[in-house]
Specification:
The protein is mainly alpha-helical and about 300 residues long. It contains eleven helices and three strands. The chain has a single domain, classed as Rhopdopsin 7-helix transmembrane proteins (Up-down Bundle). Helix 3 runs antiparallel to helix 5. The longest helix has about 35 residues. The termini are far apart. The relative contact order is 0.14. Its main location: membrane. This is Olfactory receptor.
């Protein structure tokens, strides 16, 4: 009825250090992404489809990291790690659903850049507010039924032997290591869902950016290229961080030798990517930096009141 998340139990002397580091990281994620959401909503100059999607991504990152990090902090504080069967399934379900949402939302953001650069005259018509809302809603709900089914089929297998999960949250690969009997069908279903919810959005992103790069290279002036590349570089960086670490984690061969590497890669796409997103977008975007310079003094004044 219960599992035990081992987390970082192999380095007990560093528990309090890790608790402090991850607490600071969690606060930084909440603060950074929260400011991005507020700034893009408050500043009139940022009321465009690109920043609408960006604010939704920042809100998603807050939800995404809140599924795993608070639980990990509690385990580091109590040094227990016990989690009920239902809580483990719930954590996995929300983690998978939000992960699928991020895959779809990154593809939507790539499509937005594709229309803006390859079809600029039709951009206001194609990416109107109604379409943007529909794309965001579809990104949030499309993966939910599939991931609920994914969670059900994972937790419908029989678990025997050890109940210790060698991870800091309930994820598919370490859970399947505890399963009994033949789980070949379950593993094939996992790969099928991965192709459906991860590979397909990634291929769409790749195709959009191939067309974007082709269009940019055909621009007659260097000025046009200089303006177009920064619009896409931030998004490409986030895609590489998220998809790179996630793909290696779920598609590499199973082996007990990779346990430490699994945790490190999981930290990348569960914690470090949400931490870096506000920095990547704000540092490379003049409009966001300008809006933040106007917004932060107002925020300080309100706090003073």
């Amino acid at each position: 009825m219960d599992f035990v998340l081992l987390g970082f139990s192999d380095i007990p002397r560093f528990h309090w250090l890790l608790f402090g580091v991850f607490s600071v990281i969690y606060l930084a994620i909440l603060l950074g992404n929260g400011i991005i959401v507020l700034v893009t909503r408050a500043d009139v100059a940022l009321q465009t489809p690109m920043y609408f999607f960006f604010s939704n991504l920042s809100f998603l990152e807050i939800c995404y990291v809140s599924v795993t990090l608070p639980r990990m902090l509690m385990d580091l504080w109590t040094q227990k790690g016990s989690i009920s069967f239902f809580s483990c399934a719930t954590q996995m379900c929300f983690f998978l659903m939000l992960g699928a949402t991020e895959c779809f939302l990154l593809a939507v953001m790539a499509y937005d850049r594709y229309v803006a650069i390859c079809n600029p005259l039709h951009y206001p018509l194609v990416m109107n507010h109604r379409v943007c809302v529909q794309l965001v809603v579809a990104s949030w709900i499309s993966g939910a039924p599939v991931q609920i089914g994914q969670t059900w089929q994972i937790f419908s297998v029989s678990f025997c032997g050890s109940n210790q999960i060698s991870h800091f949250f309930c994820d598919i690969p370490p859970l399947l290591k505890l399963a009994c009997g033949d789980i070949f069908v379950n593993e094939m279903v996992v790969y099928l869902f991965a192709v459906l919810l991860v590979t397909v959005p990634f291929l769409l992103i790749l195709s959009f950016y191939m067309r974007i790069i082709s269009t940019i290279m055909k621009l007659p002036s260097n000025t046009g290229r200089t303006k177009a590349f920064p619009m896409c570089s931030s998004h490409i960086t986030v895609v590489v961080l998220f998809y790179g670490s996630g793909t290696v984690t779920y598609l590499k061969p199973k082996s007990d030798q990779y346990v430490g590497i699994d945790k490190l890669l999981s930290l990348f796409y569960t914690i470090l990517t949400p931490l870096f997103n506000p920095m990547i977008y704000s540092l490379r975007n003049k409009d966001v930096r300008k809006a933040m310079r106007k917004f932060l003094p107002k925020l300080s004044a309100l706090r003073g009141i």
